[in-house]
Amino acid sequence: MPRSWSVGMGIFGLLLAASSVSAQELRVYTRTVDLSDSKPGDEGRAPVVARSLTLFHAGKVYDYIESLREVTIYDPAHRRFFVIQDSLGAYAEVTQDEVRRFLGLAEDKVRELTGDLVRQPDSGGSAALDLLQLQLRPQFEVRYDESARRLRLQAPRFQYDVVCASTPQLAAVDAYLKYADAIAELNAVLHPHSLLPGPRWQVNQELRQRQMLPVSVRRRMEYGRVSDLQSLHEWAWKLDEHDRKLITHWESQLSPQKLRPMSFKQLQQSVLGGGLAQR
After folding, report:
1. DSSP E strands: which ranges in the chain?
2. What is the mean pLDDT of the chain?
3. Mean pLDDT throughout 262-279?
4. Is Signal tagged as a keyword (predicted)?
């Protein structure tokens, strides 16, 4: 039986392969392509804008983005993240409570901007206002095609299109979606152009209710300039030797003897100052 499943055979692969898998081990390789300028039928030529490797092992999640030389380690048992930045020779630790405190500040700022736009109805900011309001109070029309395993969340100017796959290993679904919720929070306060987590939480909740995993997630936004991104997930239920070596290496880096510790605030300032690219 093949080791991994991509979009083409993910629905059957996930269903058949996960019957004996433990949620302690899970591997997800993700390619994100930019479809913003693609014409119908040309999606296969869309440029790849990001690649990531996400490994679930021994209760932790390791997420590696090669282009940024960034590793995020999520430790749900201790409700914390470690973010390793090789380009800075540094790492930061932040708790989920601290992330949520920063998230609350970000939401307050979005409410302030929303209020400013409401008070200036002739400022030409209707698209920006719609996007800000959607992030604070996401409201989607949800449709699910059982035969195609396709989930759609639709709002004016904003939509998600998700190809889903079922698996009898519900622990894998729970583990992945718990991580997806948490990383959406972290990204919102670490990377300046990320959305607030509310819209993605809605997607995760719909997947959770159906006990499904995503094979592809396409997000299209039409607020002035079109943004159309699709993430393609390849799933595997076993880590290989290289995966394990990566985990051992990343864990060994969490030491002042290897990398310079920095506060999460310092990490945020490095990102905002252009020291790091957008995730």
Report:
1. 4-5, 25-34, 48-57, 60-65, 70-75, 80-85, 90-95, 141-145, 150-155, 158-166, 212-223, 225-236, 260-262
2. 88
3. 72
4. yes
